[in-house]
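Long-time lurker. I teach an intro course on protein structure, and each term I like to show students one example going from raw sequence to a predicted 3D structure in token notation. This year I'd like something fresh instead of my usual example. Would anyone be willing to generate the tokens for the chain below so I can use it in lecture? Attribution to the forum is fine with me.
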Amino acid sequence: QVQLVESGGGLVQAGGSLRLSCVASGVTFSSIGIGWFRQAPGKEREIVAAFGRIGGNTNYADFVKGRFIISRDNAKNTVYLQMNSLKPEDTAIYYCAARMTGNRDFGFWGQGTQVTVSS
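-- Reply from a regular --
Happy to contribute to a lecture. Here you go:
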């Protein structure tokens, strides 16, 4: 069973940075692709950044391009989301999710980590 554990959330002022981590277990890390999603109060969950279905290409939502970077450390079974130039509208619960390589849908989810950006 794939398990995902996020960490690194917190309170930061606008313009600041945070790095989120997602540690995967229960699966061969190279067989999964991981993405980051977020959900703000009263809003739908939206994708933030993700590795492609096949290979190491990355995709970003327009609202984080140039500010957020997704990366992975295969030796640590960990995916990171470096968030720079944070804005109050980035406030949300951030989730990492995994899909088996080649699959479109993300079938495994972490519990989420709260990110709050103050103005």
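Some talking points for your students: The CA atoms of residues 19 and 119 lie 19 Å apart. The chain is about 0% helix and 55% strand.
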